[in-house]
Amino acid sequence: MTDLSQLIEYLPFLIPIFALELILAITALVHVLKHPTYKFGNKAFWVVIVLFIQIIGPVVYFIFGKGNE
Amino acid sequence: MNILNIEKISKSFGKNKVINDLSFSVPENSIFGFIGQNGAGKTTTMKMVLGLLKADSGKITVLGEPVVYGQTKTNKYIGYLPDVPEFYSYMTPKEYLKLCGDITGMDDKTIKIKSDELISLVGLDKANKRIGGFSRGMKQRLGIAQALLNEPQLLICDEPTSALDPKGRKEILDILSTVKGKTTVVFSTHILSDVERICDRVAVLHSGKLALAGTLPEIKAQHKNDSLIVEFAVLEELECFKAIINGCSLIKAVEELNKGIILHTYNILEAEAVVLSLLSKNNLLPLKLEVAEPTLENLFMEITA
Amino acid sequence: MKSYIAFTTKEFTEQLRTHKALIMFTVFLLFGIMNPVTAKLTPIILEMFMPEGVEITLGDPTALDSWAQFFKNIPQMGIFVLAIVFNGLMANEFTKGTLINILTKGLSRSTVILSKFSMAILLWTASYILCFAVSYGYTIYFWSNDIVYNLLFAVFVLWLFGVLIISLLLFGGVLFKNSYGSLLLTGTTVVIMFLINIVPILQKYNPVLLSSSNMDLLTGKMQPSDFTASIIVTTALTMTFIVVAIPIFNKKRI
Lengths: 69, 305, 254
Fold this sequence. Notes:
The complex is a heterotrimer.
Chain A lengths: L1 H8 L1 H24 L8 H10 L3 H10 L4
Chain B lengths: L1 E12 L2 E12 L3 E6 L5 H8 L7 E6 L2 E2 L11 E4 L11 H12 L3 H14 L14 H13 L5 E5 L7 H14 L4 E6 L2 H7 L2 E6 L2 E7 H7 L4 E5 L3 H11 L5 E6 L3 E6 L2 H14 L6 E4 L4 H9 L1
Parallel strand pairs in B: 3-8, 3-9, 6-7, 7-8
Antiparallel strand pairs in B: 1-2, 1-4, 4-5, 9-10, 11-13, 11-14, 12-13
Chain C lengths: L1 H16 L2 H30 L13 H24 L4 H6 L2 H6 L4 H34 L8 H26 L2 H18 L12 H4 L1 H6 L8 H24 L3
């Protein structure tokens, strides 16, 4: 299991990636919940997209899904 | 002095001639009502005044300076409120007014003073949120504020009240009457009661031409009414009156009301004398006897019929 | 000048409040970390999933592998994100009608275009530098960067390609007044550039060179002087798109 421990060794470099993905997901989630008007889809749909499709989900939401306030 | 002069302008969209040889002028310090049915060409005319549309022929001058399509030189005298004003939804009203002020080249201090003043004039001082959450009425009010920001000599409003509820309409009209004296207001509408409430001059646009123009009293005098309204308390009296008046040579036509009658006459004064004498001779006491005031609505119907 | 600053400030406010700046920064920051980390971890991960007893002959990764990731990800994903974020730059103003007020206030139409162009370049530059700086930091931490030639020049030409894409997006937005038109024009132009690349004599003039041959610079296979023609063509095209967009915009009914 030396390989796995090697992977753990790189955790400090993987953490920022997860952190950024988390920031994107949470910002998008908050926006989805606070602004319940969308160009298409509904709240449940966007919550799933934003939380489960990493990076692309939140990006797609902000560019295409977000309603015009 | 005329603040706006329109001389013989025409405009077609394809084969459809929207404006046909239209001429009129707006004197300073008036509230000018620009009336017409939907699609009569009001917005087209206004957009040509602003240089947003190109007139096929004719000449438009604002304070003596000619309007050139695509250029915005004369627009420094004009404040414009589009029919559906669109703002950047992520800005607050104050930020939007700041942007407008900066674009027109006002200095920061004047922008601050002026925008505070206007925001309270239009009653948005408590609405310090992003424009995205505004109602139609609030957007309309912000529209007036931005249009008045650089103290324009001419304020052009395109159907400012059409999309609003009665309360919102009254508020907008009140704001427009407030600015009268400082600014000449031209506003288009198809709601005639708005015009009667605040305008001192009107122009009626019908099929691309000016059908009627002048001050309200002038117009009403020109189209002096020929009708006499007689109303009774009970139906029997009305029947009796109808019987005696029947065949009178002065009466052109008769229109029945609920418990009354409208007499369209050839000569209103003679007819009134005849009616009065007939009433007293037959001992009939009317509830009401009046010369019908011409309403703008009647005139409008007459013109557009 | 004051109106230019005011409108450019408005553009930045828009990017911030509509979360576009957030997207650009996070996505490019993510790329920045992922480029070197992917290079580093690929052999390890491969080893983990190899069946017992299978020898793998992967060499140890070097700084070049990390930059190979950079010059693969940015021209593809990075430029794609750029196009997605900025395709509505001009089009949204048309479809929402927000320019009517601003233009009747006396803002010239050329200022609108120049403001949007400068804002987009600045946001692209900032995200790109962020991505590069992070990749660079990780790369020199893991490996020696001594074997890499012409790094800054290779990074610069890719940046220039991004600027060309921005000018195309703006030009398309003015021409078609909607974001699909903007994307379509940009996409079509890129496809045409790749088709032109089939002809060998035209390759050195083609803007595509700036986004596809960066690794040859790093290995020393190509020299900066080999890129001169393409840089001139790209700059000229960018300027042409912006300059031509202005008279077209002047004639557009809003």
